[in-house]
């Protein structure tokens, strides 16, 4: 009885969570951080979502025929294969923060250097993923592959594919083929899930380990053989541990699994056995992980280490809406050791709780929900490259000025998924059938939701780890909705059907008109040609009257030069750019707009014009395909420079805007014809 009430409460809370997320995603997507400018407005977004939902309904009814189902499967899989190979080798770069820290360190580890940057004492949770990436780089080296970034991109795409496959295999055990097809369609079309592979960071790895653990928990529940059950349970916990070692918030999966086990109809003996195995396996994994860290000579330097309550202080910071920034890092770093930093952050946490009160906290939490859960892009619009040697045509349509179609379509699918999630919650609450496989997914999703809302730092990309579980539950809810529409013949009244179609068509035309500014108004966009900018730098001493130089390969025309080369004596530092052995301009730190320059080889020179040595701050790294050639006078160091083309362009071309509108008008027509025939 208590168990049923607890599960009813879990599903009820999940339904409420989905209502909040849907309200934010539909009416105020990205409002707090201004992300709504990257998608079409709400008047356009809602009819677009309804129309695509209608198109999914057509597919749902069509996919009952095997030849159509397999045909769509082949098309979608081929689409993903082509897309992934293209992106892996044509869109290569790094943000220049966190991910590039890991990339530089992984490259050193792969070459046998076990000296760790101070960054990893600040973020020791990234050590595990960095070691894994070093293994992948080493494999590429053994295979003689110089394009290590492309190889790493392919590896991360494979990880995401594996995570998606685990979701498909779980659904295949428990649901019909048509509902499974909805999962395949939405999973392959929800591009932010896969685009995240273009950043060498912890998210895809953590998601993959989480989904493998989901699969083996399900195998543990489904199997009748004792040996298979024990092995599946053990392996699932190992995967949960690996996810936790890659990403801090993945600990929620372990907690969700323990709650899930307690709420199952297990005997007391079985529950105790599960708990013992879980804690024993976690202990062994944790010990083994420490041994792996030791083998790589990793140890935390107390001077650079921050306590965990730093991220709680970030999450409760009212001025920054619970996000990073606002000077809290510098404020904490001024204390000499983790103990005094912990005390300071405890003081800040108590101060925030006291000053905000309950109403203030509710307001903060609502803003954090909007930041992390209202945008279907999962933050890809914020993850631009600051390090890239190879510009790409696709970059502008993914991370650049013209990504509005990608982000809008992602928002459409995101809204539909959360609607399906809501419907699934309502159906479960109505039938009180709590013995379904989604319990663990629900516990994990709302666990991550409340973890970041109530206490931890919030960011758009922190929602990424729940996307595949959301796809699973949402697909089931969408299938439930389609079954309800079919069984009740919801659109049998032609007047009702015609009215709905007319309203959607009207909203579509209205939305088309209201978003014309995206086509008519030019905005200034800085198109990257070459980017080599990293926040963490190392000193380089230049002797009196010495000049250092670095070769740059500009593959496109550019009209802007940006340098960030701090010097101990800026007045004695002269920065110049040469082309064909001729100096074309003298630049200074910051942005310098110039007349349009052609593609080709350039030399960036930094000279000390004084009689005393000066110290520059430069980038240090082993050579890699993301960087230019090293400074000629220093083998492993690079100048912080960017070449770009500043241009005026609209958010979307007129042809693309019109074609997008016509496409959805056609989909509306197809949905109307399909439903109209059902009434005959």
Tell me about this structure.
By secondary structure, the protein is of the alpha+beta class. The protein has helices at residues 2-27, 42-62, 66-90, 99-110, 119-122, 127-142, 148-174, 177-189, 192-195, 202-222, 226-246, 251-263, 268-295, 309-315, 328-333, 338-373, 395-398, 404-431, 439-454, 467-488, 494-514, 517-520, 654-679; strands at 387-388, 523-532, 538-542, 547-554, 558-563, 573-579, 582-587, 590-597, 600-608, 614-620, 637-638, 641-649. Helix content is 59%, strand content 12%. The model has no long low-confidence stretch (mean pLDDT 91). It is globular and about 85 Å long. A five-stranded antiparallel beta sheet has the order 1-2-12-5-8, with no helix packed on it. The chain has a four-stranded antiparallel beta sheet with strand order 4-9-6-7, with no helix packed on it. The chain has a three-stranded antiparallel beta sheet with strand order 3-10-11, with no helix packed on it. It is built from 23 helices and twelve strands. The protein has three domains: 2-30 and 63-488, no CATH class; 31-62 and 499-521 and 650-680, no CATH class; 524-649, Jelly Rolls. The two termini are 48 Å apart. The chain crosses the membrane at residues 44-63, 70-89, 151-171, 183-216, 236-259, 271-289, 404-425, 437-456, 462-483, 495-514, 657-676. Keywords: Membrane, Transmembrane, Transmembrane helix. It comes from Liquorilactobacillus mali KCTC 3596 = DSM 20444.
């Amino acid at each position: 009885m208590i168990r049923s009430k607890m599960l009813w409460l879990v599903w009820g809370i999940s339904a409420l969570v989905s209502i909040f997320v849907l309200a934010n995603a539909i009416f105020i997507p990205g409002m707090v951080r201004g992300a709504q400018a990257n998608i079409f407005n709400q008047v356009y977004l809602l009819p677009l979502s309804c129309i695509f939902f209608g198109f999914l309904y057509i597919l749902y009814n069509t996919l009952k025929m095997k030849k159509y189902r397999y045909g769509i499967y082949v098309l979608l899989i081929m689409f993903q294969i082509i897309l992934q190979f293209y992106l892996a080798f044509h869109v290569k770069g790094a943000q220049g923060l966190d991910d590039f820290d890991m990339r530089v360190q992984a490259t050193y580890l792969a070459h046998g250097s076990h000296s760790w940057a101070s960054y990893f004492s600040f973020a020791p949770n990234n050590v595990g993923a960095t070691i894994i990436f070093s293994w992948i780089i080493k494999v590429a080296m053994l295979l003689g592959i110089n394009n290590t970034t492309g190889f790493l991109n392919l590896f991360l795409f494979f990880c995401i594919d594996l995570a998606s496959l685990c979701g498909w295999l779980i659904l295949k055990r428990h649901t019909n083929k048509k509902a499974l097809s909805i999962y395949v369609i939405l999973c392959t079309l929800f591009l932010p899930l896969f685009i995240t592979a273009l950043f060498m960071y912890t998210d895809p790895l953590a998601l993959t380990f989480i989904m493998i653990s989901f699969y083996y928990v399900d195998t543990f529940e489904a199997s009748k053989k004792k040996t298979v059950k024990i092995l599946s349970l053990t392996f699932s916990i190992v995967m949960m541990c690996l996810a936790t070692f890659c990403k801090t918030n993945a600990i929620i999966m372990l907690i969700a699994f323990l709650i899930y086990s307690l709420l199952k109809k297990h005997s007391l003996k079985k529950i105790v056995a599960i708990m013992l195995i879980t804690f024993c396996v976690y202990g062994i994994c944790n010990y083994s992980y420490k041994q792996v860290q030791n083998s790589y000579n990793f140890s935390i330097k107390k001077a650079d280490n921050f306590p965990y309550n730093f991220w709680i202080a970030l999450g409760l910071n009212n001025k920054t809406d619970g996000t990073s920034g606002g000077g809290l890092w510098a404020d904490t770093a001024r204390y000499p050791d983790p103990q005094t930093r912990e005390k300071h952050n405890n003081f800040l946490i108590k101060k925030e709780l006291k000053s905000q009160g309950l109403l203030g906290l509710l307001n903060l939490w609502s803003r954090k929900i909007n930041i992390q859960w209202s945008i279907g892009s999962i933050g890809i619009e914020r993850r631009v490259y600051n390090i890239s040697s190879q510009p790409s045509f696709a970059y502008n349509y993914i991370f650049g000025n013209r990504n509005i179609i990608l982000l809008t379509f992602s928002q459409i699918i995101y809204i539909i998924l959360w609607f399906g999630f809501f419907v699934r919650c309502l159906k479960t609450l109505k039938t009180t059938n709590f013995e379904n496989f989604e319990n663990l997914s629900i516990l994990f999703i709302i666990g991550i939701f409340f973890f970041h809302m109530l206490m931890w730092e919030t960011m758009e990309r922190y929602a990424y780890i729940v996307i595949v579980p959301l796809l699973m539950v949402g697909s089931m809810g969408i299938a439930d909705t389609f079954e309800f529409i079919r069984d009740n013949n919801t659109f049998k009244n032609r007047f009702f059907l015609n009215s709905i179609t007319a309203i959607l068509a009207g909203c579509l035309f209205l939305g088309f008109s209201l978003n014309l500014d995206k086509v008519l108004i030019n905005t200034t966009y800085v198109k990257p040609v070459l980017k080599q900018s990293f926040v963490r730098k190392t000193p380089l001493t230049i002797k009196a009257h010495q000049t250092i130089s670095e070769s740059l390969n500009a593959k496109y025309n550019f009209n802007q030069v940006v340098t960030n080369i701090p010097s101990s004596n800026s007045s004695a530092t002269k920065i110049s750019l040469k082309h064909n052995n001729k100096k074309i301009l003298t630049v200074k730190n910051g942005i310098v707009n110039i007349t349009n320059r052609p593609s080709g080889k350039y030399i960036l020179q930094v000279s000390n014009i004084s009689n005393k040595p000066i110290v520059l701050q430069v980038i240090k790294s082993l050579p890699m395909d993301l960087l230019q050639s090293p400074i000629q006078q220093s083998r492993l160091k690079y100048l912080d420079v960017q070449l770009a083309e500043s241009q005026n362009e609209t958010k979307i071309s007129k042809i693309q805007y019109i074609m997008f509108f016509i496409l959805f008008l056609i989909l509306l027509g197809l949905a109307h014809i399909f439903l109209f025939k059902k009434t005959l």
